[in-house]
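Continuing the series of single-chain predictions for the mutant panel. This is the parent chain; the variants come on the following pages.
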Amino acid sequence: MASRTGPGDEGRGPAPAQDVVLFELDEHGIVRGSGVGAEALLGYAPAEADGRPAVELFEGLPAIAQHNGRAPDGWRGPVEARHRDGHTVRMKVTASRLSGRATRWILTGTPVAEPGEPDAVDLLVWATRQGPLATVIHDADLRYVWISEEFRRLFQYPADDQLLGRRFSEVHPEPFYAEVETRMRQVLETGEPLRHMVRPVLPGQTTDRAWAVSISPVKDEVGRVRAVCVTIVEDTERYWAGRWLSMLSEAGTRVGTSLDVSKTAAELTEMIVPSFAELAVVDLLDVVFRGGEPPTELGAGAVALRRVAHRASSPDIRMGVELGDAESYPDYSPPARSIAAGRALLSGQHDPGFAKWVSLNPYRTAGVYRYGLRSMISVPLRARGAILGVLMCCRSRDAGFTESHLRVAEELAARAALSLDNARRYTRERTTAVALQRSLLPRRPPERIAMEVATRYLPTDFQIGVGGDWFDIIALSGARVALVVGDVVGHGVRASAAMARLRGAVRTLADLDLPPDELLTHLDDIVTQLSAESGDDAEGKDEGTGATCLYAVYDPVLRQCSLAAAGHPPPAMVWPDGTASVIDVPTGPPLGVGGLPFEQAEVAVPEGSTLALFTDGLFESRTSDLDARLDELCRALTVPAASLEALCDAVLKAMLVGPPADDVALVIARPRALDADQIATWEIPPDPAAVASARENALRRLREWGLGQLYFSTELIVSELVTNAIRYGRPPIRLRMIRDNMLICEVSDSSGTAPHMRRAHAFDEGGRGLLLVSRLSRRWGSRHTQEGKTIWCEQDYGE
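Parent structure:
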């Protein structure tokens, strides 16, 4: 055979010895003939080695016979040859197909004279084969032609070269490796290298690792791609460092998007599962939900926490504690221990405290043994020195947590804890503001009024959740009832304070029994004055007060309602036949504009009707078409409901698609009419002698109503009121008695002079009449009418 020299070898020293024929092998790798070198180099006479496997004579010789025609045409490499006398001879052997005989091989070789002086080719082969890089070379058909030892170790390939000549897809039929083969073909076609990151679970490994894969083309002297070289390097640490850094960065945008404690906790678990853990749980102290101040330290013993959020990678994993439920964590449990230690704690199935705690809950036990969640990180949630709760993350045993994961979990918990504490502080401020707002509204309708009433107030989800919407139900004289809804412009404490002032002003004006249009006129003056007094704030902004209001007075005797509106949406009425419509009320300007009059409307209210008053927050999330919104409200009011309370809930559900963008005040009232036998009216002649007949008529009607216990007080009240009307008033004079939830006595005349109570001295002959009336009645007063005035009083008569 020819010497292994070529162009460019000059000056490299003497050429190596010429290869000599050693043995001829059959298709099974069995020696079937000896060459001249067999006896000269190895001591085997002709035919002495026949019938022996070649692999017994040469250590390191590949099993050539196993290639069955798929192997390359030859092989060359270093081997340890066994001499006939037992010693070894280091040789370089070449295996070549025997010309004309496809299944026969011939081995040629030469001894390595100086083992300590390998040539450059040997060094290159050894370095690439034995180096730390996992490298493999595939030919143009993606057949293995060379495999490094590190690659063999990673993929658990056999030490011999039985894989040489096999296709990549034959060795790795899994779908994951099909993508790698596709990329290799791409490199063959384009000649451009590719690099990417993969996370396979290699043979013999239990967890996936990150590998940087480099696929490079192998080109000949003219630039043709003849093979591809694939090199993989483990990059797990850098890969996860990048992932954790990305996760922490993502936490700043995904966690804490709202000032809601539960939503913030849910966002944290959604980000953790499945990228970091297979199960994530957030439990908080009850004080966090209430917006209170959490403790800086917890005493020894069990820790009571409430489940706020949890998420699992599989719906089959049961949590053991439902959302909103509380659980007491014993002092040996990992969550309690991490809170006590003030740092993240790594625990698992080998931790006695973990095993004991898991055994207390069957669902938790199933999570550990059925789903393999045997690795756990518990991280205390602390912010601004206060303890909020704990974050728990669980993984399976095969992909358990390590110490490096503790830092990631601690950083996630620290960032989430700040968002949770901000939400807690917002909850506290909003709860305080809403409590203040609700304290300024009536908690319940007045007792013994001529209507059934249900109310709702929903604060906005904007800012701190308070605004200027209000409602009121005011008992007036003569069994009449005033219904009020209003809306101060703006939100926040300023609007809430302005609302309280306006509500107080409306109540004061209502005590004067003013008609609705006159009341709004006076209220408009008050708002104008308040706006002038408020002036500009510290930033120079105009803090003037603007508001809308609807004031309605229902008279159960006349069965009619008087209404006036100041820039406010009109009310709706559900009629006895089940239909609903909007009441046509002349809408005046909003309060605070000044200088424009208000008009009053009168509406008959049949028995069985229902009246609905509301603020415009009921429509904020709907279309801008006011008529369409009112039609939608009318449809909602006609939905059958078991009670007015249920009707309020149905209306809010139908009109609001989510948390209201503005405050919502809703009043639904079902007026009640008085029967004719509950009312008695007498005309009184302007003669002092008529006082006696007035007393007799009143006492006779009391007997008919079965109110004998009120004889004495009613006789005195009627005598005083009728006497004053005859003495100081002008005819016509009228006495009216109304029996409702109380006894009402009214004396009217056409004089506009209002009486007033004064203290009589010891020897005064008069001045005690109204004092007696006030002592004998529940309350009393006077109101001006178009015809004059009316003096009235109310008496309780019990059951």
